[in-house]
Amino acid sequence: MRRPGSALLAAAAALAIPALALAHGVADKDAAFIQANPGPQVVPFLYLGAKHMVTGYDHLLFLAGVIFFLHRLKDVALYVTMFSLGHSATLLAGVLSGVHVNPFLVDAAIGLSVVWKALDNLGAFRSWFGAQPDNRGVVLGFGLIHGFGLATKLQALNLSRDGLVANLVAFNVGVEAGQILALTLILAAMAWWRRSAAFPRHATAANLVLMAAGFVLFQQQMAGFFLEGGA
Asked: Could you tell me which of 111, 60, 142, 59 has the C-alpha nearest to residue 219?
């Protein structure tokens, strides 16, 4: 019978594939529906936000890294709240104010956020610099970057101003719902895995895989940036 750690490592490795570069794009049929139906569309945007998060491998990899060594639910709630505040702020502000950031560069930075969290889990910063960064502020900061990643995908749809605020709020609520669903599954898997005596050994390997996945995403997004001229 496969051990819990082995199963999770296999799942993590499956995420470290080139498909990461397409982690949170908007499907063509979803984009076509939105553009063909201007005005308030609360339910479709709720669905789109939830789908965006559940299928957003880069966001989920980062969240998995954040909660990797968190055992108390109140700590999980604290860090997830910081992340949510960050990405909600830049998602709403980015779209409503028209602030645009190159999507390749944003997604490359998101890849580096995954690398950072893996290094943090491996104790690299304390070893290198003799100090541990305040993860609350760091997670909030990376949440801001992830929010711009979400905003760039909606900006690419050239959304109608009619019903825009209602649609953005619905999208963000959907993102939070999808995040809760994904986190519930991740936490359940982590709780199962931690009961294994081999968890400490597998945890190191899993964070190395997590770091590799972040580098894959970073490299692919930077390649896209240079190949498409940074447009």
From this structure: 111
Rounded to whole angstroms, the Cα distance separating 148 from 140 reads 13
Length of the chain: 231
| Cβ atoms of residues 87 and 147 within 8 Å | yes
Residue 16 CB burial class (10 angstroms; 0-12, 13-18, ≥19): buried
133 SS3 class: coil
**Considering the entire predicted model, what is its pTM?**
0.84
Distances (CA, A) of 92 to 145, 150, 165: 13, 9, 8
CA separation, residue 1 to residues 188, 189, 198 (Å): 19, 16, 14
Query: Identity (one letter) of the amino acid at 159?
Result: L
Task: Decide: 108 and 58 in contact? Cβ < 8 Å.
Answer: no
The residues, ordered by sequence, that sit 6+ positions from 97 with a Cβ below 8 Å of its Cβ are: none
Residues 109-159: tens digit of each pLDDT: 999 999 999 999 999 998 898 888 899 999 999 999 999 988 988 888 778
Distance between CA atoms of 196 and 203, rounded to whole angstroms?
A: 11
d(CA 110, CA 149): 8
Degrees (nearest 5) of the Cα angle 91, 227, 98? 25
Q: Where are the beta strands (DSSP E) in the chain?
A: none
